[in-house]
């Protein structure tokens, strides 16, 4: 396999019971890049990224075939522990889901505790570092031991990003992370993404074409569970090769 790619997908298929959702998808992703996944609702975007850290299989009656290689290791080999894969491949969901029963501090360090790190000084140090990386430290440093329930939607999403970052993933999956946020919060998340790609690889599902154009290096257009087109973002937006991509980007989309 090509070691120049951090992630390689080969003939990936995914089903929900008898429904064939992802169909023979192949994709290579370079390290330290942002890949935007675009396409109409129901085309398989979210299912696809859920296959990249084996979350899809947690759903009853879900199944997967094919290969997903992270750093040339097939994550679907039978001897691979999915929990370890999810430490390498973090995920941030569309709706911010902090653990409101826990403090802001505990939200950040829960993954570290589950990994066996209990030393308080180490947890304090990592928590501050990660909250700074997530551009949230200055806003919460005086209320670390209170619930995150009082935080704004944008702050809650950055807290969820901090929680994902604490376990030091090499790939971060983001499923429409700004769709429920106001424009100011969206800008903060996008600025954070641009900083994060210096140290990891990001794959972002988005319905916002302007966002895809602003933040991504590569854009992948999904349709009916298949990749129609994958190109460098500037190329795809200016010179799409497939007429279906052109119609989708121009807003003239139809299901035909």
What are the defining features of this structure?
256 residues, alpha/beta, Rossmann fold, 6-stranded mixed β-sheet, 4-stranded antiparallel β-sheet, 10 helices, 10 strands, 36% helix
Task: Describe the protein.
This protein has 256 residues and is α/β, with parallel strands linked by helices. It has a single domain, classed as P-loop containing nucleotide triphosphate hydrolases (Rossmann fold). The chain has a six-stranded mixed β-sheet, sandwiched between helices. A four-stranded antiparallel β-sheet has the order 2-1-4-5, covered by helices on one side. Helix 3 crosses helix 4, helix 3 packs parallel to helix 6 and helix 6 runs parallel beside helix 7. The mean pLDDT is 91.
